[in-house]
Amino acid sequence: MTKTPIQREFSSRDLEKYSSAFTLSDMEIFIFPELLYALVYANIMSPEIWKWRDDPWFSGIEKMGPLKKLHRVKQYIMDHYDFNLDLETWGLTDKQTEIGRFRDFIDMDTLARSNALFGYEGDKYYFDLDIRKHFGLDKFDTEIIPYWKTETVEAMNAFRFKDAHENGAGECVSLACLYVAALFIVARVPLEDIYMMGTPLHSQNFILIDEGVITNNRRIVTKSMWYNGTELSALARRAMEHEEVTIVAHPSGYIHSVYPEASIDQSAYKRFREKLSKYLETQVNFEIFINFLRDYSRYQKLFQITFFCQGTTKFIKLERAFGYEHGSKNRLGDKNGRKLLCEMDEEEMNLTAYPTRLIFTFDDDIFKTRPYQEFINLLVEQYPSLKENHEFITDLKKFLHLVPRIPSENKNFTPSRHHAITPSSSREEVISIISSMRQSNQTADLAFYAGRFMDNCDRKPFFKAVFERNPVSIAYFHDKTANEIFEELRSWPDESIYEGNRLALPDEVVNYKRGDGIEKAICLMNILKSKYQDEVHLQVSDTLAKLKVQGVIYKFITSKQVDLSI
Q1: pLDDT averaged over the chain?
Q2: For the chain, what percent of residues have pLDDT higher than 70?
Q3: How far is the C-alpha of 498 from the C-alpha of 509, rounded, in Å?
Q4: Residue 136: C-alpha distances to residues 128, 170, 279 (Å)
Q5: In angstroms, what CA-CA distances link 173 with 40, 156, 179?
Q6: Torsions phi, psi of 435, nearest 5?
C-alpha cells in the first residue's frame, strides 16, 4: 500500500537547496556545503555498502589493525570503481543559468575566485594547459559549463551498465563520500575521526589513523607515502600544494572559506588543524632528502653522489643513479641504496668528482634525522651556493613542511546538534538515529533527499530537480517522437538502480538504460515537457504509472509504491 506523500512548506532558498540534494553538482555542494555530508549519510543509510561486509575480501577484517583495514578497503575500491569525469554523463549547463540560481546565495566575484567553473584555474603547474582545454570544454562557447554531479553509491555502482565501463565509477567527490561511508561501515572507523576536504578542483579525506591518512580518489596516502617522492604521491600532493581548501566537513558540521558561519564543532576543527599540520611536516634524513630530489627531478643535476665500491671511491651523477631505480627492486634512499649504485654500469661511474656538481654521501652527518628547519640551515651552510638558489630552497621547504590553505578559525561557530552514530550500530539503528536528527540538523534532513528516500520526503524538490537539471535524457531523445521514446524506454530492463521506493532521476534512467516504470514515466514526462511545452499529467497508483500529454496516455508498470499525482 502506498504511503501518503509528505508535504512541507519551503522557502525559495530552501527549495533550491533541497532540490540540489537530488542533483548534487559540484557547484551545488560548493554553495550548500551541508550537501557534502548529507551524501555521506545517504550512502551510510543505503544497503549497498553494508553488503560489502559479506564479501570474502573482508573476511576477518575486524581482527586487523586500523591501517591494514584501510588498505583492505582501498584495494576493494581500486578493484571495483574507476575515476570518471567526463562531459557526457551528466551533461552541460551555462554560467548565466547557474548565476541566476545562486545570485542570492553568494557574491559572484567570490564565486569566480573560488570555483573551477567560473574562472578559477588553480596553479598553472597543476594543469600545464588552461582549465577548459584540460576538461574538454574548449570545444564549447565559454559560457558553457558541465554538470559535474556527485553520484550516490547506487549511481556509482550502475556505471557498469554503461558502454565501455566494466566497474562502478564516480568523480572525486563521489569517491570521497564513498570512502567515508565504507570506512565507517566496513573498517569500523568512527566518523569523528574522518574529515572531508574540498578544494575548487578536488576532494580528499583526512583520517586520524596512525600519523594520518589522506584518501585521494581511489587511493590512500599514508604519511610515509606522502614523502616518498613517487609520481603517485606527487599527484596526491598537488591539490594541497596548489589549491585552497574551501570546505572541511565532519559529522559535527562544516566550515567554509567563504561563509562567516561554521557549524563544525570548534574543538573538532582545532583537532583537525593540529593533526593535519603534523602530517604535513616531516623530519629529514638521507631518505627524505633523496625523496625530495626524486619528486623535484629538475634539481638532480645539481648533485653527484659518491660512495665506496669494490675498493674504489666512485662518483655518479644523481639523475643517472635515479634512472637505475626503474629496473631494480632497490631504491636510492632506502637501506639498499648502495646495492642500487653497485648495480650500475661502470661507464656510469667516475673516479673523479664532477667539478660543477655538489657532492654528498650516504653517511654525511647532515643526514642524521633532524627537524626540517635545522636540516635546511645545515644544508645551506655546507653548500653555500644553494643559499642563492631561492627556488630550490622554496620547493624544499614546501616538500618538508607544507602549510595548507584551510578555512580560517575566525568564524562564528554555531555547532549543529548531532547524535553520534557508531560503527557498532546496525544499519537500522543508523537510519533511526539520523532520522531522529532531522528536526534539529538540516544535514540529516537533506540526507533523506540525497538518498532518494521518497517515503520520507516532500516531492516538490524532486520534481524541481527533474525538470530543471536533467539535460542528458532530453538530449538523448531530441530527434525522436513521443511514441518512439515511449517504446525505447519500455524496451529497457524494468529494474531500478535504487531499492524500495527510492527514485532515480531521468538522466540516471537514460545513462544506465534501465528503470522501474515510475522512473521511466518521470523520464518521459521530463522529455515531453521540454519537447512540446504542453501540460503533462502523471498519475501513479497501485502498479500503474500513467502519463498523459496531448490527449495520449502512456502506461508503465511499476513495482514501487510511490503515490504521485503531478
Answers
A1: 91
A2: 93
A3: 11
A4: 14, 18, 35
A5: 10, 11, 10
A6: -60, -35
Task: Place 160 in a pLDDT band, splitting at 50, 70 and 90.
Answer: very high
**pTM of the predicted structure, to 2 decimals:** 0.93
Question: Which stretch of DSSP H or E encloses residue 236?
Answer: helix 231-242
* Closest CA relative to residue 176, chosen from 155, 157, 192, 153: 153
- Rounded-to-integer distance, Cα 288 and Cα 225, Å: 11
Tell me which residue has cell 673523479. Answer: 352
Amino acid 331 reads R
Q: What is the three-class DSSP state of 232?
A: helix
Residue 368 CA, chain-centre distance (Å), reads 38
Residue with cell 540529516: 444
Report pLDDT for 210: 95
Q: Does the structure show a pLDDT above 50 at 128?
A: no
CB atoms within 10 A of CB 328: 13
> How far is residue 561's CA from residue 540's CA, in Å, rounded to a whole number?
9
Polymer length in residues for the chain: 566
Domain regions of the chain by residue span: 12-281+405-454, 286-400, 470-565
Say which residue, 125 or 245, is predicted with more confidence: 245
